[in-house]
Task: inverse folding
């Protein structure tokens, strides 16, 4: 990214103004193309005794001669009959020497346009000149398609930065907003799988490990970007590991995106089914059990919750299967109906419209926090018993199924393939490490609050916890219906954005274009939607999908590639030591064990 040039001194030239202009003209024209030469971006404002004009000001154009106007050159200025020349700034990829300026009434030189607009214009002119004739231009100087722009991932806040950069607050919440996702809904289930104490330990441990490897990704990218080109971590892997390293980084990044899209499709089908069932039940007057707390596994122990209702989820529809039940099936028809709504949105060439809904991610997380807090109050306090295994509220401290939690957290803390794009818009890059640490602490705190609060207050057996906490509430629960409807809208608007990022990272390496043709995009979208529908029909368990995809992608992109790249960097610099090798080899071993354990402890 361009950095603002340092301030340069003003040099006073006394004598013949025409002579000064003649000397300066070649330097000015060297920065402009022919079509820009007539734009008066380097005009001279003459003022002082003997000059005509409404207020003693007059424009001297390089080509047109004297003409009236209020503007002053970006390189020249006069006051009291003397020409004041702003020293040309050094020629840089992004320079600002042609910003139109004017003299204020108090004699100060001020910009006629804001710096961001001027920087964009000069950037365009600079690249246009270097690209050569229009018939001979190529995309050598264009930003690569696989380098994601920060606006895809940044949170929109109600204030703007004049420099076009984001401060630490925006950076922190952009990381938090991007990382928080579907794993939040499965956090109570993950704690139940691992045991209460082990779940909290894994939350802290995985947050620390993923933060460190994410920091290593950022530093390796910044080191390669110091040469002046924009890169992603896949480019870093190519630099140190060759083409196989690049392909591995791209493949596992795509696998993480695909896993997220599958989970999104399962959840959208779930929320769409429950929302329509709620509306249908209210319309025909069906008894949908009100605010019942449901046991996801169908356990019926005869006890009731604090709400006075404990029903099996399989009994929420009438025993006699109606036509509505045949047409509106959660796993057989709804995933197909969802295609009608979402597939047209997947084929948009640009995702700009959908980025406007990024703020919904923050709102949905806040809504879920409020939802869990309200439900905890309705449940009547904590329901935990660590001593008696026969108790209804028995809560194990440790469980052999803890890999389910570690696998889920691998995807829950995964932001390694997007972190560079977010931090690229950071105003002060020296704060990257601090801001990332704060963001990871916020994410871990959010996961812990939602998971631990819902788990500890849940009024039924802990084995009844669903991998989607909203499945523990009946279709007739108005609060749960509101949450489902809100999340459905959010996911429908964000799913095309995931598809767009997948398209960039998949098609650009293959065809050197993110949009080769509408046929390529259509085929890719059909493949993606087919995979998503198959999972929604045959394996609609988001906890299982998240744990396996997280462990698989984390093995490479979280635990292995960042560590290997860092060790190779140290080796090139002659700073590699055995303690460093052992420490990073241990991180890689943890990732491998996490992946293997998913198959051992099912």
Result:
């Amino acid at each position: 990214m361009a950095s603002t040039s340092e301030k340069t001194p003003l040099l006073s030239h006394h004598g013949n103004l025409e002579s000064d202009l003649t000397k300066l003209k070649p330097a000015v024209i060297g920065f402009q193309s022919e079509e820009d030469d007539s734009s008066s971006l380097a005009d001279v404002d003459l003022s002082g005794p003997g000059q005509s004009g409404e207020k003693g000001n007059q424009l001297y154009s390089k080509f047109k001669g004297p003409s009236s106007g209020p503007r002053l050159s970006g390189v020249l200025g006069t006051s009291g009959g003397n020409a004041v020349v702003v020293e040309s700034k050094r020629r840089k990829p992004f320079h600002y020497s042609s910003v139109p300026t004017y003299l204020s009434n108090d004699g100060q030189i001020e910009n006629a346009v804001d710096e961001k607009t001027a920087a964009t214009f000069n950037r365009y002119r600079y690249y246009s000149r270097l690209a050569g004739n229009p018939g001979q231009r190529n995309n050598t100087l264009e930003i690569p398609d696989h380098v994601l722009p920060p606006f895809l991932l940044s949170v929109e806040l109600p204030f703007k930065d004049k420099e076009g950069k984001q401060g630490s607050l925006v950076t922190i919440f952009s990381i938090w907003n991007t990382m928080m996702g579907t794993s939040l809904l499965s956090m109570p289930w993950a704690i139940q799988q691992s045991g209460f104490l082990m779940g909290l330990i894994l939350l802290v441990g995985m947050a620390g490990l993923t933060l460190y490897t994410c920091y290593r990704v950022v530093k390796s990218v910044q080191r390669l970007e110091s040469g002046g080109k924009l890169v992603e971590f896949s480019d870093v892997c190519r630099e140190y590991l060759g083409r196989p390293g690049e392909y591995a980084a791209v493949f596992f990044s795509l696998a993480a995106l695909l896993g997220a899209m599958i989970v999104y499709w399962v959840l959208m089908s779930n929320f769409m089914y429950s929302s329509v069932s709620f509306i249908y039940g209210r319309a025909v007057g069906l008894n949908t059990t009100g605010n019942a707390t449901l046991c996801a596994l169908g356990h019926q122990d005869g006890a009731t919750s604090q709400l006075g209702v404990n029903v099996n989820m399989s009994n929420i529809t009438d025993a006699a299967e109606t036509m509505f039940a045949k047409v509106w099936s959660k796993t057989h028809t709804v995933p197909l109906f969802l295609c009608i709504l979402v597939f047209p949105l997947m084929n948009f060439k640009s995702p700009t419209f959908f980025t406007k809904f990024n703020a919904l991610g923050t709102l949905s997380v806040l809504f879920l926090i409020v939802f869990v807090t309200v439900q905890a109050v309705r449940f009547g306090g904590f329901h935990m018993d660590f001593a008696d295994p026969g108790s209804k509220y028995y809560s194990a401290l440790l469980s052999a199924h803890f890999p389910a939690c570690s696998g889920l957290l691998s995807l829950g803390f995964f932001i390694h393939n997007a972190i560079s794009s977010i931090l690229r818009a950071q105003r002060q890059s020296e704060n990257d490490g601090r801001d990332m640490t704060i963001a990871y602490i916020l994410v871990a705190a959010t996961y812990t609050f939602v998971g631990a609060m819902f788990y500890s207050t849940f009024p039924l057996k802990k084995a009844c916890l669903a991998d989607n906490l909203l499945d523990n509430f009946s279709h007739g629960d108005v609060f749960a219906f509101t949450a489902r409807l809100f999340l459905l809208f959010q996911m429908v608007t964000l799913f095309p954005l995931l598809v767009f990022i997948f398209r960039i990272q998949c098609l650009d390496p293959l065809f050197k274009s993110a949009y080769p043709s509408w046929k390529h995009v259509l085929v890719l979208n059909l493949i993606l939607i087919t995979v998503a529908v198959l999972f929604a029909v045959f394996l609609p368990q988001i906890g299982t999908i998240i744990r396996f995809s997280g462990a698989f992608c984390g093995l490479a992109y979280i635990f292995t590639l960042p560590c290997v790249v860092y060790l190779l960097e140290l080796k090139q610099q002659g700073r590699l030591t055995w303690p460093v090798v052992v420490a990073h080899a241990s991180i890689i071993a943890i990732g491998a064990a996490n992946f293997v354990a998913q198959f051992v402890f099912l």
The CA atoms of residues 1 and 228 lie 8 Å apart. The beta strands are 10-13, 44-47, 57-61, 65-67, 76-79, 82-86, 101-103, 109-111, 293-295, 310-312. The chain has two domains: 10-136, 150-600. The first strand starts at residue 10 and ends at 13.
